[in-house]
Design a protein that fits this description.
13 strands, globular, Rossmann fold, seven-stranded mixed beta sheet, alpha/beta, 11 helices
Length: about 325
């Protein structure tokens, strides 16, 4: 059934449909409506979950890590300075291999204080061991949250589902909301190990030597690279049930193109219109949308761009002293 939803509310609906059992968050613009919508659903009984109002984003992620270790399905959301404050715990989440899904609503990082949409907040966390999936609109955001739980629980690696602040988070558009039965077919209840056995308590030290640390990081690195196959399988299964598919990269009018515009996020919608108009005027221009940023889809990008003479990368971010981050990758 189609509903008029903002990107934020589409994510909240996906959290409900995914039967998330624990949510810890701290409100921050432009993420706050996600938190508010979930809080309302928990309050009115349409969602059976425990909602924790943390005193900071750092605490929210710490709570999510602990909750996930008990075997329940966990969610949080943040933006900008909140994600920056979370940084320490992001490494703990990936290092402990907990399948947390976090919605990140892109917003500029201060200073100066501002509210524009800027991917630098999430891209600055690209080396924390989290998967990153960038969404174009509310429909893709809803679908990707559901897919992300299936992926994360297979590979035991956390993921960020990312939308542009305001352009996607607050823009209201028709979104196809699947039924609970449909989502249950795709995403069964989690069967994750409970690492805290209260009937058999134990103390686990987190101190390892250099060799053991390197081995942990090697496994995370290799499993992240291998996660691309799981992402592909998740999308294939999703298409079978819901008749929607996104892929790791999404080509548009790439056949016979001499120039390719590479985009991510909401700007893709405008770029498609521009490409279509340029095609009508006889210009050989195509479009390639990058959805999956971590793990980076190098082979898929090479395949689509191997015959392209010029590549234009549109970045809504900046690595100071270097340039656009998608371009740099």
């Amino acid at each position: 059934m189609k509903e008029l939803l903002s990107g934020n509310h589409a994510i909240a609906e996906a959290v409900r449909l995914s039967k998330v059992q624990f949510i810890a968050a701290y409100p921050i613009t432009p993420q706050t409506p996600i938190y508010e919508r979930i809080s309302q659903m928990v309050s009115d009984g349409t969602m059976d979950a425990h909602m924790m109002r943390a005193e900071s984003e750092h605490s929210a992620m710490a709570a999510c890590i602990a909750a996930s270790m008990t075997g329940v399905r966990v969610f949080t959301a943040t933006s900008s300075q909140g994600l920056a404050l979370m940084h320490e715990m992001l490494h703990f989440a990936s290092g402990n291999r907990v399948p947390i899904v976090m919605a990140c609503v892109n917003r500029v990082v201060a200073a100066p204080w501002a509210f524009g949409s800027d991917q630098t907040d999430t891209l600055s966390q690209r080396d924390t061991g989290w998967m990153q999936l960038y969404c174009e609109d509310g429909q893709e955001a809803l679908d990707t949250v559901i897919q992300a739980y299936w992926i994360c629980e297979k590979v035991r690696i956390p993921a960020m589902v990312i939308i542009d602040g305001f352009y996607t988070s607050h823009f209201i558009e028709p979104v196809e909301v699947p039924t609970e039965d449909e989502v249950d077919r795709y995403l069964p209840l989690p069967s994750l190990p409970n690492r805290f056995q209260f009937s058999d308590p134990a103390f686990l030290t987190n101190v390892v030597d250099a060799y053991q640390y390197t081995e942990f990081k090697r496994r995370l690195f290799e499993d992240l690279r291998a996660a691309k196959e799981v992402v592909r399988e998740a999308d294939r299964r999703f298409e079978e049930i819901f008749e929607r598919s996104y892929g790791m990269v999404e080509p548009f009018e790439m056949e016979g193109a001499e120039c390719a515009i590479v985009t991510s996020g909401s700007i893709t919608s405008c770029a498609r219109i521009a490409v279509r108009r340029l095609r009508e005027k006889g210009f050989g221009v195509g479009l390639l949308k990058v959805k999956l940023f971590r793990p980076f889809p190098s082979e898929e990008l090479r395949e689509h761009l191997k015959d392209i003479r010029r590549v234009v990368v549109i970045d809504r971010n900046l690595s100071a002293g270097k340039g656009g981050i998608f371009w740099d990758e």
